[in-house]
Design a protein that fits this description.
globular, alpha/beta, Pectate Lyase C-like, 2 domains, twelve-stranded parallel β-sheet
Amino acid sequence: MRRLTRWTARLALCALLLTAAAAALLTLTSTGQNLVAEASSRSPQELIRYLKRRLEGHNKLEAVLLPPLHAAQRHFEREPPAGPLPTLGKGQQATGLKEPIAGIGQQLRVDTPQAIREALLQAKPGTRIVVAPGLYPFSLKMRLGNDGRSDAPIVLSAEQPGTVWFQFGQVEGILVDRPYWTFENLDIRGVCERHDDCEHAFHVVGRAAFTTIRNNRITDFNAHIKVNGNEGEWPDHGLLAHNTLTNTTPRETLKSVVPFDLVGANHWRVQDNLVTNFAKRDGNMVSFGIFMKGASEGGRIERNLVICSPSDISRPGVRVGISFGGGGTDPGLCRNKACHLYEHRLGLAANNIVAHCNDTGLDVNQSNQVVLAHNTLINTSGVATRGTLAQARLYGNLYEGVARARNGSRITAEFDETLHPGSTHMNTDGLLLDWRKTPERVPSLKSLQDDFYRQPRGPGSLPGALSQ
């Protein structure tokens, strides 16, 4: 079997190289002459997409070269196993979260869409708005009326997950522009006929510091959670925890497709979420699972499960798992107009599992002082840093592919290990991650006390997201 796997890899590589050479001979243009340079700076997955674009319109060459190119693509982009993949305990929890919300002094029960709207406008600090079980359709943006406080937040919730369903037919579901609000245990679905018309379930802006969004299931939006500034104020110190963010179909839109899209806000924590199935069909066809950009800083992305494509991994488009910097930010939207210095700085991505992405699992674009530690990347092209401002420290990661420093960026790496999908885990692609062959332990980072499952890491820890 190992010999067959080696021959398959060699055949795929030969097919890729032969196709690259033939594509270079399409014309004697500068693009063709620079193909070798392209190949050295790009992953095999990127190069395959590039070559397929170059072949478009050359029917005879397509007939000859596309079959081996598709064979190479099937090798480098393995199709995920059929059926639902395990969630590994991430995303919305069926029984709710154990951690109570302190400072709640009264409850306000509501059971109609209009009553929910009024409660959001009228609730005082220390109030929990409890929505009765049922289905609630909305077609207009909902707004908040009062600030919560650190000792008395305002909460909108269902008593039990899976009992309250909001249907949003509007561009923005809830505009969160006041501090110390919490939203939990809700099931929210975008039901717009045009995907352009269902942008965000939550739009967190301006003064909405210390927003908490936890234990919700949010489906069928372009950017399920959008976070950005407004009139010089920024919604810092937010928490996104134990949410399931997903789509049922590729998004037919020119707009950004990023389930968690943060621009300019500082010190957000994104923890224990399940982010999956976020393909973009129109426009540039590039999508991200999670990103932080816009001259933001201090973000922590920890213990999340990100599955770019649960099926059809090689569908058209580009899908990236987790990114500091995303695709860059319009200078007018950057915090303190500082994007010329960094898109994000002092960011941490740790103990995440990122799987089945046809591009990088971890991406750093024009962001610096970034730490990528103890992540496991399965069936992705690996790690990339991009741009002269980009600088990342890699530590104790377990991944396929390579770490590429592109366009003058810098990477330092310690104790990373290569993941071998056929021998490292019991069923790597199926996310059955019991060790088949346990790697050697590496020194633990003092700043990381636990792993993907919040199990403690000892003085010596295994590479990747799992410490045991």
